[in-house]
Design a protein that fits this description.
single chain, 106 residues, alpha+beta, 2 domains, 4-stranded antiparallel sheet
Length: 106
């Protein structure tokens, strides 16, 4: 039986950052690395270059998150909150903050 997924990690500055690869079909593989904020499918031929660049992508994401120090708060109704969360989920966003940031900064 052939295994369709692989869980592994890359080590940077003595810290391990996990990622997973899951075969979608003969041409595509789903790549997920929360530390690099990547969760999408890639052509199999692009996976090697992605893995080579993964340390740089992780470091760039860490730097980006460290710069996010300001907080914006606002009130919404329960119905609006549910709608916003639903749209964020359907849009493939991991957090409502990521969704609102993208929508607001278009």
């Amino acid at each position: 039986m052939q295994k369709n997924s692989l869980n592994h990690f890359v080590t940077l500055n003595n810290k391990k950052y996990s990622y997973s690869l899951k075969k979608i079909n003969t041409n595509e593989t789903y790549f997920d690395c929360e530390s690099a904020n990547i969760a999408q499918s890639f052509l199999n031929g692009d996976i090697a270059n992605l893995l080579i660049d993964l340390p740089n992508l992780i470091l760039a994401e860490k730097e980006y998150k460290e710069k996010q120090e300001e907080v914006i708060r606002f009130r919404v109704t329960l119905e609006d909150k549910k709608l916003i969360e639903e749209k964020a989920g359907k849009g493939g966003f991991k957090t409502v903050s990521d969704y609102l940031r993208v929508v607001a900064l278009k």
